[in-house]
Specification:
Strand content: 25-35%
Radius of gyration: 18 Å
Helix content: under 10%
Oligomer: single chain
Structural class: mainly beta
Number of strands: 19
């Protein structure tokens, strides 16, 4: 009927160790590269959107109930060594740790050495390159990502009920969750 369907393969290049949690879902077009001696650990109930890329040269740990949007990349390496003009060479790889119940927005990059605490949100088109493991339930955004708000987290439960409420009440600005 004139509708094109794009089917893309997921590429796994595994020289190191991949640890998968239970009940996760990785969509089309994802690419995962793990170098020898490196480990990538993906927690339970992970969802990774289209074109998710993850490269492990050292170690990457992503917690439980993490949602990763489309076109997200997690890279624990710069791929190449760089040096200063007087010959100082820096490490090209550093561990990444992403906490539980985190949401990585579309088109985000998580760079080497970055850490994000439990319940945090990384806004669309952001670059996370610092250790924010001590901050919980924060919203981070920007290049480089900075803490914008605290005391927020992604809604995981009751999504259908909430969507139904806003559909029936289009002028409503908020909804109070009932626990």
């Amino acid at each position: 009927n004139g509708v094109g369907v794009r089917q893309e393969i997921t590429v796994l290049a595994l020289e190191g160790t991949l640890v998968l949690g239970e009940h996760g879902y990785i969509t089309n077009g994802c690419r995962m590269y793990i170098k020898k001696g490196a480990t990538i650990e993906l927690g339970d109930a992970l969802y990774a959107g289209e074109h998710f890329r993850i490269c492990g040269f050292k170690n990457v740990k992503i917690g439980h109930h993490v949602r990763i949007s489309w076109d997200v990349q997690v890279l624990d390496t710069d791929f190449h060594y760089v040096r200063t003009m007087d010959g100082v060479v820096y490490k090209r790889s550093k561990e990444i740790v992403i906490g539980n119940n985190v949401w990585l927005g579309n088109h985000t990059t998580v760079a080497k050495g970055a850490c994000l605490g439990d319940g945090c949100i990384l806004g669309s088109h952001s670059l996370l390159r610092n250790d924010f493991s001590d901050i919980k339930n924060g919203i981070f955004a920007g290049i480089p990502a900075k803490l914008k708000k605290q005391g927020f987290q992604r809604v995981i439960e009751q999504e259908m009920h909430i969507a139904d409420f806003f559909e029936k009440n289009p002028s409503a600005e908020s909804y109070q969750l009932k626990f």
